[in-house]
Amino acid sequence: MSSFSADWLALREPVDEVSRPQSLVQKIIDALPQQEPLAILDVACGTGANVRYLMDRLPGAQRWLLVDNDEALLGQLPEQMKTWGATREYEVFESTNGVSMRGPKGTRLLETRRSNIFTLDPALFAGRALITTSALLDLVSNDWLRIFVPRCREANAAVLFALSYDGRMRCEPMESEDFTIRDLVNRHQRTDKGFGPALGAEAVRVAEDYLQRLGYRVRREFSDWRISPTMVHLQKEIIAGWAAAALAASPAQESMIAGWRERRLEHVDQGRSRLIIGHTDLAGWLPKA
What we know:
Blueprint: H1 6-19, H2 22-31, E1 38-43, H3 49-54, E2 62-68, H4 71-86, E3 91-95, E4 98-103, E5 106-114, E6 130-134, H5 142-154, E7 158-172, H6 178-189, H7 203-213, E8 217-222, E9 225-227, H8 232-249, H9 254-269, E10 274-285
Parallel strand pairs: 1-2, 1-6, 2-5, 6-7
Antiparallel strand pairs: 3-4, 4-5, 7-10, 8-10, 9-10
Helix pairs in contact: 5-7, 6-8, 8-9
């Protein structure tokens, strides 16, 4: 999996937060066991945006295991949690392998661990009541998901898979090449990101099917990014990323892609560009005995 920069993760975190549906978090809360601390695994945690979103929305004392391949991103997570916690009345203490946080909503213990998420060590999953990930499923392969979901089931864990890109894109004002660019981007999404051929826009459907086969009840909700004209930096990064992906998928269309990119950036500079990017959140839980 190509590493994402900390700058990009910071840029997208605010729009991620406002896009996610609280209804799915409540479904998970209703399904969780009444025990403390709540044991949670966050796969491909990056700098911790997913834990920052969920921590105060989940009940009681919590014990998180935050795993990622990228040591540099993991290294930034404690400082980001300290900064975030300071605005929410947490006392934050850094340790050699993470942070502990004490605040009005309880104690949260966060262990960070560099781990090869391509191989899915079963020990990571043992004893977890909730397994979660964000912005990952569309990058993984069917073979990886076919191992990952049973690992969750073996732990009898509820799951919350957030912000999977689902293939939908809409740009305003429209350009005639928008749909071609979308199709090329979606083609590029299916290339190998380190897990084997990626599922791309099909990821949520495939994950939902595997969960249902293993006895989970499931619910999905849209978590679309709705990016306003004021989000200039984010829009420019997205458009540049789309153009690069489209070019990688079809080098022969370089001239068309370059012209599209130039016009889209002009819309951004003139304060009239809006982007809608389709994402889906998926929750799964096991019926209570």
